[in-house]
Amino acid sequence: MKIKGFQKISLIDYPGKIACILFLAGCNFRCGFCHNPELVLDKGHEIYSENKILDFLEKRKNQLDGVCITGGEPLLSLNLDFLKKIKELNYSIKIDTNGSFPEKLEEIIDKKLVDFIAMDIKASKENYNAITNSDVEINKIEKSIKLISNFGNYEFRTTILKEVHTAEEVKKIAKWLNQILGEKPRKLCLQGFKNKGKLLGEEYRNKKDVEEDYLRELKEAIKSDFEEVEIRS
Fold this sequence. Notes:
Blueprint: E1 3-10, E2 19-24, H1 37-40, H2 50-59, E3 66-70, H3 80-88, E4 92-97, H4 102-110, E5 116-120, H5 128-132, H6 138-151, E6 154-160, H7 167-181, E7 187-192, H8 212-222, E8 228-232
Parallel strand pairs: 2-3, 3-4, 4-5, 5-6, 6-7, 7-8
Antiparallel strand pairs: 1-2
């Protein structure tokens, strides 16, 4: 497990909590629009040690509520003993995942080492390999979707690229999730693509940010398929 980034405070990444954010290196997907290519490709050395983070958390007990662990794909390398030590400090833990490691996800749920899960839904079932530039085992994605829904304290989220996520594509995503769960998913967040300059794929480097008006159009198209659809522009 390599901690390559650390944000000491965030008011938006963990719903309802003041949290810090840990960025773990490595990812098994190669989404061209990813804005953390250094993390995905795992370049360089670890920057923050586990002990350094734990010391920080010990000192900030009265100022922070939670710890958000993201990446890259954190479940690729996440140290469960490290999670246990965070829980011993009475912090809530949120994990961001692409859903491709359901066995590890199930383990941290069973061991009560996570309090909130955010799972990225990259595309419709048919377009997963293309959008992630990876050979995705869709059955694992679907297993994670079921696990997270049963866990209860979660959100699904999709980063919207205008050229990829048409209204038809987003409707396919909604239909797929409903079919897997046999009911309306609790929440889907539509996140507008932001071009921050450092992207994994060259084909996305000249793309414009997605406007909030477009996100509203997509929300209107699928709002009846979820208990809640949230826009994050």
